[in-house]
Amino acid sequence: MELTDRKKKVLRAIVDLYIRTAEPVGSKAIAEMPEMNFSSATIRNEMADLTTMGYLEQPHTSAGRVPSAAGYRLYVDELMADYRLSMDETHSINAAIEEKMQQVDKLVERVARLVSQATDLPAISLASRAGNATVKRFDLILAGAGSFILVLMLSNEQVVNKLIKLPLQVGENELKLLSAVLNAAMTGIPADEFTPAMLERIMSSAGAAASLVPVIVDFTTEALRSAGATDMAVAGHARLLQQPEYHDIDKAQRMLTTLDESALSDLPAIMQGSNGTKVLVGPENLAEELRDTSVVVTKFDIGDGLQGMIGVVGPTRMDYAKVTARLSYFAESLSKMFAKPEQPQLPEGKEE
To answer: Is residue 144 scored above 60 in pLDDT?
Structure first.
C-alpha cells in the first residue's frame, strides 16, 4: 500500500490535533480543519489505510485514532512544520540563561531545571569530556624518607597526584627508572587498553620498583575514568503528572520511579558522532523503562574539552516541533555563552 501525499497530509493533521487535545481524533474533526479539502468519507478511508499500515492506532472501539510510534517517527522525519520561536519565547529563554547561569559550578543541575521550565517536561542535562582521556606524562617525585608523589598530566590538561609510600629497597634512582618505563609504555593510551600483559611488561622492566606498578596503574585507571566521567542531572519529574497520559496513578508512579539517571545512561552513547537534535520515539529507546515515552536530545559545546547535552522526556504525543526548536535554541545559546572570546589580532609587524 502506497503512502501517498494525501495520507501524509491526513497523518500530519491527526498528529497535530492529538498533540493539542490528547484525545483520539475522528474523521469529522479532520474534515473541519481549514487546510483539509477532502470529504469525511475520504478521510475515513485514509485513516483506515494508515491504521493498517501501522501509522495509527485505535485505542478503543470509538472511531477516533491516535498516532503509533511509527506514525510519530514519520511525523518527526518528514511531516512536522518548523516551529519559529516567538520574540517572547526567545527573550524568556535568554533572560533565564543570563540570570541563572552566572556561575558554571552547578551547570548541569541549573541547565536541567531551566530546560524543564522552558518545555514543561522532565529534562536531562549532562556534561562529559570529549573522547577518552590519556596520560601525557608521569612524574615520580621523591618526597622525603619513605614516600614519593605520583603526578599525572592528563590529555585534557588536568593534573592529579597521589602520595605513595616507598618500599625500603626503592630510592631516587629506581624512581627515575620507573618514571621512564611508565612514560614509554603508558602515555597516550586510554584506561580500557590497560591489559594484564601490559602490567606484566612494565613490572618486568621496573627493577626494584616493580611492586609499585600495580598501585600506580590502579590510581591512573581511576584518574582517567574520573576525567572522562559524565555529570548528569534530571529535573522536573513531577511535570509528567500534568500530562493526560499519566493521570493514571499506577502508570505515573511506575514512570517516576524509573525516570532516573540509570534509565538515561545510554543517551550519551546514542549521541556520539551525532550532530543536531535527535528524537527517539517510544520503542526506539534502548532503556526498557522509556519504551512508552519519547526522548528528544541535543548537544552543545562547553569548551575546554567538555561536551554538554540537554534533552526532555515525555509522552509520545509531545509537540516535537516546539520542543526541538526550544532545545536547539538553548543549545545554541549555551554554546555561545561558553565560547572563549577571540584573541584580538595584532597589527602586522608588531609583537605583544
So the answer is: yes
The distance in angstroms from the start CA to the end CA of the chain is 71
Q: Count Cβ neighbours within 10 Å for each residue of 235-257 and write b for 16 or more, e otherwise.
A: bbbebbeebebbeeeeebeebee
Element (DSSP H or E) covering residue 106: none
Question: Position 351: which residue type?
Answer: E
Give the position of cell 540509570.
262
Instruction: Retrieve residue 129's grid coordinates.
Output: 569530556
Task: Please name the residue that has the C-alpha cell 491516535.
Answer: 66
Closest CA to 297 of 316, 277, 314: 277
What pLDDT is stored for residue 154 in this prediction?
85
Q: How many helices and strands, by DSSP H and E, does the chain display?
A: 12, 10
**Secondary structure (3-state) at 295:** strand
Q: Which SS3 state, helix, strand or coil, does residue 271 take?
A: coil
Mapped onto helix, strand or coil, the DSSP state of residue 237 is helix
Tell me how far apart the alpha carbons of residues 334 and 332 are, in angstroms, rounded to a whole number.
6
Give Cα 228 distance to the centre of its chain: 14
Q: Residue 186 corresponds to which cell in the numbers above?
A: 603508558
Cell numbers placing 94: 535568554
- Whole-prediction pTM: 0.66
Q: What is the DSSP string of 112-173?
A: HHHHHHHHTS-EEEEEEESS---EEEEEEEE-STTEEEEEEEETTS-EEEEEEEPPTT--HH
